[in-house]
Write a structure and sequence with these properties.
CATH topology: Oxidized Rhodanese, domain 1
Order of helices and strands: HHEHEHEEHEHEEEE
Structural class: alpha/beta
Low-confidence stretches: 26-31
Number of domains: 1
Radius of gyration: 16 Å
Number of helices: 6
CATH class: Alpha Beta
Helix content: 25-40%
Number of strands: 9
CATH architecture: 3-Layer(aba) Sandwich
């Protein structure tokens, strides 16, 4: 019985990964639905894209909830260091994505409330799942991630900790999902 549940879970993970990966590939080459004009999309369109990108086992929390309870969380940035240096959420710790290793979290208690974010939620969802597998059970993914945070005009800081309205757009196709802020690459 446990073996069948394990196989079912593995199949689900493979399907989720393939679905999200296919979306990323299609978006990168321009075949997936994206806003025709940067910043011109409805909240429903953004939510649909963010849900698809972050569809996984980690629980999502919204940006408004986090902004009202920010002091209760360890905030982890699952983007590349270049993205983090342009801007990040106040108090966020960079943990990376392509070279992520749980040893970067040695100072965080296993029972702490943690929230991960990236650009739109795909990378942070995967990191959140790794954290749960490593014993961090109170881990969440920020729905819509830093793009949604910026779109809500919530505060961002640069690598010096100073307020900024700059945001790393990941690339030209993904940056179309940003309504507010100065997009850089």
């Amino acid at each position: 019985m446990w073996y069948m549940n394990y196989k079912k879970a593995q199949k689900y993970k493979a399907i989720k990964w393939l679905t999200a990966s296919t979306y990323v590939i299609l978006l990168t080459i321009g075949c997936a639905p994206t806003p025709k004009v940067a910043g011109e999309f409805s909240q429903e369109e953004f939510d649909d894209m963010a849900q698809l990108m972050a569809d996984g086992n980690a629980s999502d929390l919204g940006v408004n909830y986090l902004s009202n309870h920010i002091e209760e969380f360890y905030i982890l940035d699952a983007r590349e260091v270049e993205e983090y240096e342009v801007s990040h959420l106040p108090g966020a710790k960079w943990i990376g994505y392509s070279d992520f290793h749980p040893s970067r979290l040695e100072d965080i208690p296993k029972d702490a409330a943690i929230i991960t974010y990236c650009s739109v939620g795909f990378r942070s969802e995967q990191i959140a799942e790794k954290l749960v597998e490593s014993g961090y059970k109170n881990t969440y993914n920020l729905k819509g991630s830093i793009f949604q945070w910026s779109n809500e005009k919530l505060p961002l800081v640069n690598k010096a900790g100073m307020p900024t309205d700059s945001i790393h757009g990941f690339n030209k196709k993904w940056s179309k999902w940003i309504k507010y802020g100065k997009v850089t690459y």
